[in-house]
Structures are given as structure tokens and as C-alpha cells.
Design brief:
By secondary structure, the chain is an all-alpha fold. The chain is built from 19 helices and 2 strands.
């Protein structure tokens, strides 16, 4: 294509017109004026469309702020002060599905999870102290076989925190504001449950709790109690029966919601073992496969409704990527697709980044409907 290498001079423009390339014969002046006016109108329409888009974006942002402020007042004025009665009311269930105000999450999540284990801040300090002792003995060359086994957990924790915990947020990596807090939280839990140790997936669970609870000790109490729920404990303790039961529930629900996808995953792909593509959903309690705001909304419901919601969430994650999953050819492709999450504006939405929380909640609701 030929273009004018230099801007057209005033003299040349007067002869050729403003809408005619310099290498073509001059255009009729009236036609040139007509085309120039059409061009100006087109540019004006484009500018107006851009202004409308910005106005709509601001309106949506303002609406979200108003909604968030309204929810915060309801939780802080009506729900939290009368907790025992309020959480049994039907309208409150709809409230947690609409989302807990971010400022209220620390109190709400802690109360909803509870503390059946009777842990205290001193429990956290004692467990963390044991982790430091193990580290010191191994570094001094005085560790026994048990110490070396535990040191392997601590090493994996440091690796996962730095390499596999919402890197796009730059909060948990070395030098980030919550790096050491997350390392301490996971190390303390591994020592507290030395029969389990450290399980990959716990890193993003701990990260979510640190972001929403007031301090590491309260995050530790919540983490220990939520991982003591039957389904999560089954996965962390590698209970094959419990895991198989969870996978079967997901596939049974999927068979009802999408027979085609169910058949593809269970018959068309012989090596698509549910363990391959569902395990990390459950060990991460949903946090490993969603954007940060989507995780928070999932947990607004999960802390109240428990294990059944994780099965529902796993089903929703598969349904949300149904068309892409139908194009997979082997189990590894299924795993990679599920772990990568859905695309957003043509790009893969990074776990821990900005997501479409309202869209995600619609999928979650739909997955539970008969």
C-alpha cells in the first residue's frame, strides 16, 4: 500500500483536498467537503461512544461501591450483633450468596468456621516454635530422621509460597509484605498436624485467610479448623475412599447438568482419571483455580455451607469450561485446562488476579440446581 511519507502541505491540500492521497488525481471540492464532514461525524460518534463507555464503567463502579457499603451495614448492624439467630434466617443465606463485605470478612469467616479445636494464639506460637527448632537442628547438622522429614516440608513450603502463590499479586513472594507471614502460617500448621505435614494447595488457602483475617494467629486457627472438616481432611490425609466419594459426587452432578461433557470425560478420554484434574480443586478448597475476588466470594458461602459447596464448585468449574473441555484429547489436556482457569477477554485469567466474580457466582448457583 502506498502512503504519503510526509504531511501534506497547505498548498497541496488546497489543490488535492484533505481526503485524497497525493498520488491520485484531485477530488471534486464538493465531494471532498462531503467526505470530510462524514469523517468528522464518524470521529465525533467514536468520541461519544468512548465517553459513554467510560460513563457506564463509572456507573457500574459506583453501583458496586453502593452495594458493598449497603452489605457492610447489614452485616455489621444486623447480622454480627445477633449472630446465633441471624445465621438461621433464610434471608441471611441470600446475603452470604450476595457476598460478605470485605471489611466484615475477618469476623464473619472466623465465626462461621468456628473453633471446635479450641486453638489459641499460643497454639500458633508453639507450633511455629517447633518449626524453628527443626530448622535450627537441621542447619546445625544435629537433626534426626524425623527432623529431616519435617525440614523437607518446610523447604517445600518456602518454594510454594514464592513460586506458586498468586505471583501476579506480588504480595507473597520473597520481599513481599505477607511472604514471611504465609511461610510461618504454613510451617506452624505442618508442625501442628505432623501426621499430615504440608500438602500443596494449602498455600493459597493460607494466603486467602491472611488477606482477610486480622493476623497470622487468627488465620492459623481458621486454617486448622477448616482443614479439619471431613472432606478437606480426607484429601489432606490421602483417604482414598473419601476422595473417590467426592469425585463420584462431582461426576454424578455433571451427568445431570451436562451429559455430553460427562460422557466425554468418562468414556471418550480413557486416561482422564478424576484424580488428575479434580484433586487440586479439593486440596486448594477452590483457591488454586480462581481469581482472588472469585475465591473470596466462593468462601463467603463455603464457610457457612461446608463440604457440599466444594463439590458444587468443582462441578461449576467444569461447566464453566464445557466447550473447551469437549475439545480435549487426553487427561493431561483436561488437567491443564482446568488448572489454567477460563479465559477473560481472550486471555487466560490468572488465578489470584481480577476475575468475574458475579459471573462465577452464577455458575456456582446453577451447578447446584436440580
Amino acid at each position: 500500500m502506498m502512503i504519503d511519507a510526509m504531511p501534506m502541505s497547505k498548498e497541496k491540500e488546497a489543490v488535492l483536498g484533505r481526503t485524497r492521497p497525493s498520488w491520485l488525481p484531485p477530488k471534486d471540492p464538493n465531494e471532498d467537503k462531503k467526505h470530510w464532514k462524514e469523517y468528522e461525524k464518524m470521529m465525533a460518534r467514536s468520541a461519544e461512544s468512548e465517553r459513554r463507555r467510560e460513563a457506564e464503567k463509572m456507573t457500574k463502579s459506583n453501583d458496586r461501591d453502593v452495594t458493598a457499603n449497603g452489605l457492610m451495614r447489614i452485616w455489621e448492624d444486623s447480622i454480627i450483633p445477633r449472630w446465633s439467630d441471624a445465621i438461621r434466617e433464610r434471608r441471611t443465606r441470600e446475603l452470604w450468596w450476595r457476598g460478605v463485605a470485605s471489611r466484615s470478612r475477618g469476623v464473619v469467616w472466623s465465626r462461621a468456621i468456628g473453633n471446635e479445636l479450641g486453638l489459641t494464639p499460643n497454639s500458633f506460637k508453639a507450633a511455629l516454635g517447633r518449626a524453628h527448632d527443626v530448622d535450627s537442628r537441621v542447619k546445625a547438622g544435629k537433626g534426626d530422621a524425623e527432623d529431616i522429614r519435617k525440614e523437607a516440608w518446610l523447604s517445600k513450603i518456602r518454594e510454594d509460597v514464592n513460586e506458586n502463590t498468586w505471583r501476579d499479586l506480588r504480595i507473597f513472594q520473597v520481599g513481599g509484605p505477607l511472604h514471611q507471614s504465609l511461610v510461618d502460617l504454613l510451617s506452624a500448621y505442618a508442625m501442628y498436624r505432623s501426621d499430615i505435614g504440608y500438602v500443596a494447595g494449602c498455600n493459597t488457602v493460607g494466603a486467602l485467610l491472611l488477606l482477610n483475617l486480622p493476623n497470622p494467629s487468627s488465620a492459623f486457627i481458621a486454617l486448622a479448623n477448616v482443614l479439619n472438616r471431613p472432606l478437606s481432611l480426607g484429601f489432606y490425609a490421602s483417604d482414598l475412599g473419601a476422595k473417590a466419594s467426592a469425585y463420584n459426587l462431582v461426576l454424578q452432578t455433571l451427568q445431570v447438568k451436562s451429559p455430553g461433557l460427562h460422557e466425554h470425560l468418562t468414556r471418550n478420554i480413557p486416561d482422564a482419571d478424576p484424580e488428575v484434574y479434580l484433586n487440586t480443586i479439593f486440596t486448594g478448597l477452590g483457591t488454586s483455580h480462581l481469581a482472588m475476588d472469585e475465591c473470596a466470594r466462593l468462601w463467603d458461602v463455603y464457610v457457612f455451607e461446608g463440604d457440599a459447596l466444594l463439590v458444587r464448585a468443582a462441578t461449576a468449574m467444569l461447566l464453566r469450561q464445557e466447550m473447551a473441555l469437549l475439545g480435549t484429547r487426553d487427561g493431561d489436556e483436561v488437567r491443564k485446562l482446568v488448572e489454567s482457569g477460563p479465559t477473560k477477554n481472550g486471555k487466560v485469567a490468572l488465578a489470584g488476579g481480577s476475575g468475574d466474580e458475579e459471573g462465577w457466582m452464577r455458575w456456582l448457583r446453577e451447578a447446584g440446581k436440580a
